Amino acid sequence: TTKITIAIDGYSSTGKSTVAKQIANYLGYVYVDSGAMYRAVTLYAVQNNMISPEHFNKQKLIDALDDIHLFFKFNPKKGFAEMYLNDKNVEKAIRTMAISNLVSKVAATPEVRKKLVQYQRQMGENEGVVMDGRDIGTVVFPEADLKIFMTASAETRARRRYDELKERGDDVSFEEVLKNVQDRDHIDTNRKDSPLIKAEDAVEIDNSNLSLEDQFNTVLNLVKKTI
Ligand code: C5P
């Protein structure tokens, strides 16, 4: 059987990773969460006082890029790969609001993108990969066999992210989450390097009113048509 490359892009908190993980597990493919990599670089920048809500010392981060070692390690208990930053599991630390509020600034830095895109391409070399992010179908794998662009209303997305954070025990307000989702969409869409945009040949899925099962089946049908 032929293995394909599946690129899933879209706005923040559209549920890309949920459906990407399910599809990867079903097909026996590798799932790569490219957003986790940008989050891990942001965590490094926070830990090394390179960025805060008030300042961003971009050059200091650029100079330190060679000291940032990222890798994914599969956690069989969870059924997906977790993010490691310099040998430390940062899966939880990269999902906080503090990181969400800074990550788009870091991700707009071309030098950061160059490093991460290189790594992402390596991970996709052997095909049989589902990768989600903002520029997977446009920049990382412009030749991907199947490209999906996920959308949903900002309210729907913020509600989902809010419920997720609450479940984890994070003390956040709905307004704060909504603002973060809107701010990230704005920065991600308007940056110069690799802005978030639907690839010409991507299939758009608005999942505002789709159940997880509906989404999974919609994507699986597209996969079957592609293979
Ligand atoms: O996917 P997630 O919401 O975790 O991504 C966090 C942030 O990382 C995005 O808001 C965006 O700024 C950045 N990102 C990116 N390119 C990708 C994946 C994520 O710029 N391929």
TrEMBL record:
Every copy of the Cytidylate kinase domain together lies at 6-224
Query: Mainly resides where?
Result: cytoplasm
Catalytic activity as recorded in UniProt = CMP + ATP = CDP + ADP; dCMP + ATP = dCDP + ADP
Q: Does the keyword section mention Transferase?
A: yes
Give the UniProt subcellular location, in the record's own words.
Answer: Cytoplasm
Question: What broad class of enzyme is this?
Answer: transferase
Signal peptide positions are none
Highest taxon in the source lineage: Bacteria
Key words of the record: ATP-binding, Cytoplasm, Kinase, Nucleotide-binding, Transferase
Which InterPro entries is this protein grouped with? Answer: Cytidylate_kin (IPR003136), Cytidylate_kinase_dom (IPR011994), P-loop_NTPase (IPR027417)
Chain sites annotated for binding ATP: 10-18
A molecular function annotated in GO for this UniProt entry is: kinase activity
Mind telling me which Pfam families this protein's record contains?
Cytidylate_kin (PF02224)
Q: What is its EC number?
A: 2.7.4.25
Q: Which NCBIfam families match?
A: cmk
Q: Which family does it belong to?
A: Belongs to the cytidylate kinase family. Type 1 subfamily.
What this protein is called in its record is Cytidylate kinase
Native species of this protein?
Gaetbulibacter aestuarii
Q: Which gene encodes it?
A: cmk
